[in-house]
Amino acid sequence: MSSATVATDEFMQAAIDEARKGLEEGGIPIGSVLVHQGNIIGRGHNRRVQSGSAILHGEMDALENAGRQPASVYADSTLYTTLSPCAMCSGAILLYGIKRVIVGENQTFLGEEALLQSRGVTLQVLHNADCISMMQAFIQARPELWNEDIGV
Question: Where is the signal peptide (predicted)?
Answer without folding.
Answer: none
